[in-house]
């Protein structure tokens, strides 16, 4: 179809948002809209400026005949603070403390709007990292893992506590739970991970970090590599953690004999890249 | 900020796609862009035409001073067939059959691109239904449930096989597994569902439908209502099912002594609404 600029802008924006972290050639858009590459380049300049000024994300463009464009989701600092502030406020409501030092988060983790925003934030931290897969342990981390993986168009692998008939042959390892010091088992289907894959570990809650450490062992077992670790909430109390170099969005303290948890920001601001993307050029004429 | 039309189109498209099934007032956009409502209406006409011609979704608009706009994700028939055809092809690969009549789908369910597309398809089926929540049973249905719920901005509630310390008090029911005829238990946190809530049940795989039936009982236990049921794959063999009026995307047959499963389309085409959205008007002048 031949489309006008206004129509191209709408369709191209929708297309880019649905295909994050995938390089799309100018030729593809040029054919899709039956428009010259120079017009497409101008469109992309407009989209790029808006994505960046509205902090929707980054557009990385490669010049030349084989040139292309790649949308990289990135959350601006203002939205980061708005998200963390909302989560802090929600999590410090009464009646959230559960026996054993846990926090009731099921309602928050049930909301796709929160989950998707958290996913975009975690993806923003790792915007410059090569990632091949996102790993989590069943069950609560699963939606977060998908939210991150969606922003990168990479697969999720789910570690389980026991093997299932629906998963074929599995690799099983033992690990020591950090808080209870008990030996536990985790399993992963053999077909899940390729050798040398760069894996981002994502989970909802970390006390001592035993599960996280177990997952790093699992990754090594497959000959793959830990590209990073991110948790939504870590506890302030259990120190030192069994893992280091992890990103936490929030930090939980449970005060003695009080009903209201204290939630602070985690270390995520130390991790957010300042210069997130290499400077890029768009092959284009002056913008109309 | 004051923005030009081209910039408004990019930002508004991104904003609408990120806020599905939410009514956004013209005043909001008018303030956001410091532009007259008449200009915003014209923008929306352009976006609406493109969303519909490109089958990105529907824009439902309400005229008048209190008017607003609502983006409803909808997958066009062409994309539906492309998606189902891809899934059929992937699922009929060798080595997918597992003991007990199960199909190995872990790799497919691990891919956010597939999961999100399947979620948009299921959301399209229920585009005209009032929905308050999406329910699934752990574990494999979870990503599908979030993918559907994301398209509607409604929460997900996850039924578990046993209660967890992190969930507070729970409601527990017994149900009979359809295929094995064994009595099983499912639990849901008390705070999960409100009375009269309209709940869409989503799962990845259905043999006799025992789990589905269990979830409908759980919904009744909360005084809520089943708004619909959808599964990715149903088996052709187990008949009749314990539930009726469910949507299936694909149907699996396991031929005797063969290594390759047969996958056909399910009943989804019977369910996709032909006239998906009521005719709507945009309050606007003639388009520039």
From TrEMBL, chains A, B:
SUPFAM superfamilies for this protein: PRTase-like (SSF53271), Winged helix' DNA-binding domain (SSF46785)
A GO MF label: DNA binding
Keywords, ordered alphabetically: DNA-binding, Transcription, Transcription regulation
Domain Bacterial purine repressor N-terminal, first and last residues per copy: 4-73
Pfam families referenced in this protein's UniProt entry, alphabetically: Pribosyltran, PuR_N
Every Phosphoribosyltransferase domain range: 112-251
InterPro entries for this protein: PRTase-like, PRTase_dom, Pur/Pyrimidine_PRTase, PuR_N, PurR_Bsub, WH-like_DNA-bd_sf, WH_DNA-bd_sf
GO terms classed as biological process: negative regulation of DNA-templated transcription; negative regulation of purine nucleobase metabolic process
Subunit structure, interactors included: Homodimer.
PANTHER family reported in the protein's UniProt record: HYPOXANTHINE/GUANINE PHOSPHORIBOSYLTRANSFERASE, PUR OPERON REPRESSOR
Family statement drawn from the similarity comment of this UniProt entry: Belongs to the purine/pyrimidine phosphoribosyltransferase family. PurR subfamily.
Protein name: Purine operon repressor
């Amino acid at each position: 179809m031949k489309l006008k600029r206004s129509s191209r802008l709408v369709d191209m924006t929708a297309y880019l948002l649905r295909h994050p972290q995938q390089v799309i050639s100018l030729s593809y858009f040029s054919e899709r809209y039956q428009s010259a590459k120079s017009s497409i380049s101008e469109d992309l300049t407009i989209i790029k400026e808006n994505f960046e000024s509205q902090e929707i994300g980054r557009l990385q463009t490669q010049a030349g005949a084989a040139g292309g464009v790649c949308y990289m989701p990135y959350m601006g600092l203002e939205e980061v603070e708005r998200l963390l502030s909302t989560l802090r406020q929600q999590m410090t409501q009464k009646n959230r403390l559960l026996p054993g030092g846990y926090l009731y988060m099921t309602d928050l983790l049930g909301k796709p709007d929160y989950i998707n925003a958290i996913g975009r934030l975690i993806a923003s931290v790792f915007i410059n990292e090569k990632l091949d897969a996102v790993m989590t342990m069943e069950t609560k981390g699963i939606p977060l893992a998908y939210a991150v993986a969606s922003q990168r168009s990479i697969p999720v692998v789910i570690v389980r506590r026991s093997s299932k008939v629906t998963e074929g042959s599995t690799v099983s390892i033992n690990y020591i739970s950090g808080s209870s010091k008990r030996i536990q088992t985790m399993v992963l289907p053999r077909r899940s991970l390729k050798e040398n894959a760069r894996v981002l570990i994502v989970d909802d809650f970390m006390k001592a970090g035993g599960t996280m450490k177990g997952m790093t062992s699992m990754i090594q077992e497959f000959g793959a590599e830990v590209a990073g670790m991110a948790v939504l909430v870590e506890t302030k109390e259990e120190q030192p953690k069994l893992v280091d170099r992890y990103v936490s969005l929030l930090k939980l303290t449970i005060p003695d004999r009080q009903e209201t948890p204290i939630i602070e920001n985690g270390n995520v601001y130390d991790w957010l890249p300042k210069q997130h993307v290499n400077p890029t050029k768009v092959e284009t004429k002056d913008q109309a």
